[in-house]
Amino acid sequence: MSHLLRKPNKKEIEKGVIVVHEVTSENSPLEYVGFKVIDLDPNAKYSELLGNQECCIVALTGKINVSVGDENFENLGTRESVFEKIPTDSVYVSNQRHFEVEGVTKARVALCYSPSERQLPTKWIKAENVGIEHRGILNNKRFVHNILPDSDPSANSLLVVEVFTESGNWSSYPPHKHDRDNLPNESLLEETYYHEMDPPQGFVFQRVYTDDRSLDETMTVENGDVVIVPKGYHPVGVPDGYTSYYLNVMAGPKRIWKFYNDPDHEWILKR
Prior knowledge:
Blueprint: E1 5-6, E2 11-14, E3 17-23, E4 34-40, E5 45-49, E6 53-61, E7 64-68, E8 71-76, E9 90-93, E10 98-103, E11 107-115, E12 123-125, E13 131-135, E14 142-148, E15 159-165, E16 170-171, E17 176-177, E18 179-182, E19 186-188, E20 190-198, E21 203-209, E22 216-222, E23 226-229, E24 236-237, E25 243-251, E26 260-261
Antiparallel strand pairs: 1-23, 2-3, 3-4, 4-11, 5-10, 6-9, 6-11, 7-8, 7-10, 9-12, 13-14, 14-15, 15-25, 16-24, 17-26, 18-19, 20-23, 20-25, 21-22, 21-24
Catalytic activity: 5-deoxy-D-glucuronate = 5-dehydro-2-deoxy-D-gluconate
Function: Involved in the isomerization of 5-deoxy-glucuronate (5DG) to 5-dehydro-2-deoxy-D-gluconate (DKG or 2-deoxy-5-keto-D-gluconate).
GO molecular function, one term: 5-deoxy-D-glucuronate isomerase activity
């Protein structure tokens, strides 16, 4: 199996708290991005003290309570399935802070991490304030929820976005990359993709490759998988009959999303 493809590996760390994914700098080639998926039973609690990291807590499905220090955010979460295609609630937590997430219902939560040293205010990113965007034409259409975009100064390095791609379409396409600190033309951002499919027995294809093909892997990605993108182009293709969802986490030395298209395929934008 590809070293960039992670299958769910569920571990119950305490009663009602299951870690589904855990991507860190210790177990992956990533330096700037960390990522966890946690499943919570009702009343089960997960807590963490952040060091020099910031975290965006995303209520993927179900309802949760989040407490950060003496701030409490209750009944967060708007959907039973990501494929309801409505924005959800998230909470931004800065470095050196303690947070706790409690399941109100059965819930799945994404924890998105990146390095941070300048402490910022805790922020409830309300579902109703999440920007919605339609991108692309023809078979290159996708629907985006901008949870923590680079236009929002609430974080030091984290960028978080949800993307829905319909049956028979492509996304992160034409193939683009962001692996050089070469602004204003391109920024250096690592990335993770957390994937779900509807119906759940579906799959998508994701290729991660560099110009010199020193990295060139094409993966069959199934429901609940994570793909790690340390560098290179990273398009996603969705087979007929299925809808794709993914949650992207990006971070790097500068909090700017500036991508570079593969010149071989950029012509499709001119159609």
